[in-house]
Amino acid sequence: MGQKGKGNIQNIEDIRKRTVPDRNFAAGNMEEDVKRRAGADMVILIQNWKKRLRRYRIYRFCLSLTLAASCIALMAMLYYQIDSSIPSVINVRAGEEESFHLGVPARGEIISVSDQGSSNIPQGAVDIDLSKTFTLKTALKSGYQMQVKLFGFITLKNVEIQVIEDQELIPVGTPIGIYVKTDGVLVVGTGEFQGVDGVSYSPGKYILKSGDYVRKVNGLAVTEKDDFIQRMKDSNGQPVVLTIERDDELMDVEITPMQDAAGDYKIGVWVRDNAQGVGTMTYIDNQGNFGALGHGITDVDTSTLMHMEGGTLYQTDIVDIHKGSSGNPGEMTGMIIYSDERILGKITDNSNRGIFGTCNQKALEMGTREALPIGLKQEIRTGKAQILCTVDGETRYYDIEITAIHLDHDNVNRGIELTVTDPELLAVTGGIVQGMSGSPIIQNGKFIGAVTHVLVQDSRKGYGIFIENMLEH
Prior knowledge:
Number of domains: 4
Mean pLDDT: 85
Strand content: 35-45%
Strand order of the largest sheet: 9-18-19-23-22-20
Shape: extended
Helix content: 10-25%
Number of strands: 31
Distance between the termini: 142 Å
CATH topology of the largest domain: Thrombin, subunit H
Number of helices: 6
CATH class of the largest domain: Mainly Beta
Largest sheet: 6 strands, antiparallel, barrel
CATH architecture of the largest domain: Beta Barrel
Low-confidence stretches: 1-10
CATH superfamily of the largest domain: Trypsin-like serine proteases
């Protein structure tokens, strides 16, 4: 009995040992669990760190790229600004001292003389610091070439120094009527028309384009719009060969006219053979030649400089002025009577610097003012100046302010920025209006330029061309 009971007690102890958890085993499991959790946390921590590192590298790359792009853009702007501050052509008077202050971190070296086969100037013998005021004085009536180097070692551009004789011009400032005959027939655009079968046709499309000049039809010269249209009608649907000028090159193209609903043969183009307008005469020189407008005559539809066969100046009367306002440039309306007794002269040249030609006696009588010496661009200063124009039947001077001077030679007719300040002119026109192009600009008794453009946003402000640029036509 006692043994049996003892045996039961032992069995109970065995059961208790088997049923009560082993503390050492539980602690081991917890340790493994902690390690497992710590490992997982470490993996997550490493993954997050890698993501942050990748983002940091991307940010750093983008920042570096932005910084590099900004530096390139800044250098490009600096280069452009310096390049624009240095004129491509400098005119100086023979035997006179001309002072310049370009204020750019560059040096200039005279490298050649235009009338010599090769330069005999030793390298570095004539070196100019363009960051400071410098003076040029030449005795030869020829030209020089100056090489400009940015910071003294980066070649920037070559500048032509031209020696000219002093010149005087008569400022005019009176309105003129302009009639220009195109050199050939100008193609304004192409379009469609309805044929006899009800189908739309456009034979000239993809063959001719705006700005083309038709010089010949089947080898015969054509100069008038009506003549061109009649030749298309007379083609009877047979192919025609047009000799056209495009981008200063002559070429032949073939087009087959089609009948429209009325039975006339057409090629589907709009053409023009002349242009008319009102402007202002700028000057008359001592040989009886004139300059006007300060910009070329362009076609109103194609905006291209018109190739001119010939033209005529007419006396005109201003009959109305539409005052300029913000966003709406004003305009002078002139009445042109195309009669021989109102002819003022012949137009011989139409360039981006203006229109030029010869005056007759009637035009010469308009030049009643005293001739003035021309003012070169380096002599112009910001500040007060005057323009000479006719807005109320009387030709007289009005006050303006020159606000900026752009010496870049490529900016042909926008070298002078100006603002009209005269209260009387502002009351009549609101500033600069269409038709005032060519009005002479005078400063300190010198003829320095002519009005060319008006700012649409502010009709008080506009641009002018240097007179020396006009004389280079």
